[in-house]
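Good morning,

Attaching, inline, the backbone tokens for the sequence recovery test we're adding to the shared suite. The designed sequence is right after.
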């Protein structure tokens, strides 16, 4: 009998991964908070699409509304709980599912931001595994319908990176790597914290900027002032990560050190990084890709700006490194969230940084 999996948060990423794990034959139960989404899955199945016809599939995993989770107490306990909620909901979502876990069960963080410590505060460090989804770009565009707007990673890019907080490659990491490998390219990592901070730098350059400006991913890199603001964000994130002792991976296709130097005004590094970003924005495909925080702003939802860029600011303060671009972005996104400004490039282009 294979492991029983419960995915808490069947939105874009959680629903995409949970749906495909079910397609691959795993015992998957989805838990979500949006009644229309839950009912659509029950009625019509979960519709998953991508950038090619071959990626289209409709699956029918078991799905529960959050108010029905207590029913798990009458069933075989879950072995794996995948938490895929917004970072600000991590604590209560983990506590919700922890009480139903099998004795040897564990919790997987499949989220933006760095939430392993929050999860460990509920279940203990020995029951936490991290999964990073890199450049997957999915959105829940209608109840019961999730689409992927970026091509599959395949051999060109590893989408899922799975690791333990202590860095050892354990049996459960290998198990998850095999399972997720049926969805897209996957590898085990001994560098979870470096991978996490690298993803945080990438998200920190893109998500809040999209939320504040209303621009999609590729559009941001085509506006000179916005592109350079993104570079400054990335540079600050890299320097703080280095000061914290993390082993950083490439930020997308950008070298971390060159990105940091570009953010600090090194002319050669700036020209190199800008050229790479412009070239990426001119490639075909992915035009509809919009970072998750940009999607949240369009839907009127709360963003993860404090848990993302605000987290970078807080960690910078711990190591004595100010992050003025990160702080300015947090303030800008909060203004748009509160309705004090409309999402537009001008929200950021008027910012003067030291």
């Amino acid at each position: 009998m294979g492991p029983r999996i419960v995915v808490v948060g069947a939105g874009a990423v959680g629903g995409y991964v949970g749906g495909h794990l079910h397609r691959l034959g795993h015992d998957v139960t989805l838990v979500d908070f949006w009644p229309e989404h839950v009912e659509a899955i029950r009625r019509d199945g979960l519709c998953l699409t991508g950038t090619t016809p071959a990626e289209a599939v409709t699956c029918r995993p078991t799905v529960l509304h959050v108010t029905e989770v207590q029913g798990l107490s009458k069933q075989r306990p879950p072995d794996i709980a995948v938490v895929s909620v917004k970072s600000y909901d991590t604590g209560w979502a983990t506590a919700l599912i922890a009480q139903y876990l099998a004795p040897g069960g564990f919790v997987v963080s499949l989220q933006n931001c760095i939430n392993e410590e929050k999860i460990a505060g509920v279940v203990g460090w020995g029951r936490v595994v991290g999964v990073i989804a890199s450049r997957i770009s999915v959105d829940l565009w209608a109840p019961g319908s999730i689409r992927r707007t970026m091509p599959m990673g395949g051999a060109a890019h590893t989408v899922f990176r799975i690791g333990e907080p202590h860095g050892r490659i354990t049996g459960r990491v290998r198990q998850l790597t095999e399972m997720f490998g049926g969805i897209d390219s996957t590898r085990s990592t001994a560098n979870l914290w470096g991978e996490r901070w690298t993803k945080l730098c990438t998200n920190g350059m893109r998500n809040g900027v999209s939320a504040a400006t209303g621009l999609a991913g590729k559009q941001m890199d085509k506006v000179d002032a916005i592109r350079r603001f993104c570079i400054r964000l990335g540079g600050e994130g890299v320097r703080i990560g280095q000061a914290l002792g993390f082993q950083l991976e490439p930020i997308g296709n950008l070298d971390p050190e060159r990105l940091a130097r570009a953010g600090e005004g090194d002319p050669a590094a700036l020209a190199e990084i800008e050229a790479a970003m412009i070239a990426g924005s001119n490639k075909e495909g992915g035009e509809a890709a919009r970072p998750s925080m940009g999607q949240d702003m369009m839907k009127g939802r709360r963003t993860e700006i404090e848990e993302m860029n605000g987290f970078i600011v807080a960690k910078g303060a711990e190591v004595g490194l100010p992050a003025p671009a990160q702080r300015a972005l947090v303030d800008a996104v909060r203004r748009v969230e509160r309705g004090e400004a409309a999402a537009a490039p001008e929200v950021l282009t008027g910012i003067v940084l030291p």
